Amino acid sequence: MILKLMIVEIKRYLKSLYYLVVLFILFLIHMLGLKGGVPFLFWGDDFLENVNFICIVLSLLMSVYICDEFSYGTVQNKLYLGYKKSQIYIAEVIACSVCGSSLVLLDSLFYLLGCFLRKQELTHSFSYIMTNTLIFMITIGSVSVIICSFSLLAKKRLITQFLLVFFAIFLINSGRKTLATLTDYESVFVEINEENDPASKDLIESFTEELNATYRTQLNMKITLSPYAQCNFSSYITTERPEDKPKQSFLFKNRDYHIDFVIADVILSLFIILVSVNIFKKQNI
Description:
two-stranded antiparallel sheet, 2 strands, 74% helix, 12 helices
């Protein structure tokens, strides 16, 4: 019974205007080679360059979609049809996760198509592209679980949208600063501005010092435990050198890919589902 409901929900998401609009935007970005952004929201036609964009846009559109279900009585109709609250919750969360993850997959496929049509070459191996695509599909799937769970529990349309978008922007920006510190991006930024700002010389010296092992572990842990922070890593992995990979991994330092993200995201998603489904069952709908 729950499988039937899951399939129905996934089909509804895939056919929804919200999903199709985001999909069309990603298609145009890769076909036209668009790059740009506004504060906290960036996009581009390179491999996995749109994960942050997908994350923030999903926070808005997915919350609107779920809150509409309460406004139009769709959730109540499911109860009348005999579905339990736990079944409704699980079906909704899985549908959100699948559809959120599918945007990452389709973004990578659009990237491949764009390479074929505009560049006539791939800048990365196919196995590299698909493996990292899978990793960040799980990352966005975990973000989708968070968005869906909060939306189902809050139910208030405007409040939910505002909080989720603010939450996404705050955590993504925090993750960007963490990644910058971990990879010494600040030292590059300060060095570029040294001529215009003589005081930046002191900053260069502080940023280029080798991070001690304890602080580096803390930074790696912060990124690994937050799918929002991991979104920043999606555009960095294309330039990550093999010798830097061990220093920028919390677990599995000798692996070629950041599979520690996968393990952390799956555990986080299961924990959120376990807690939220019990809260949802006790709420009045």
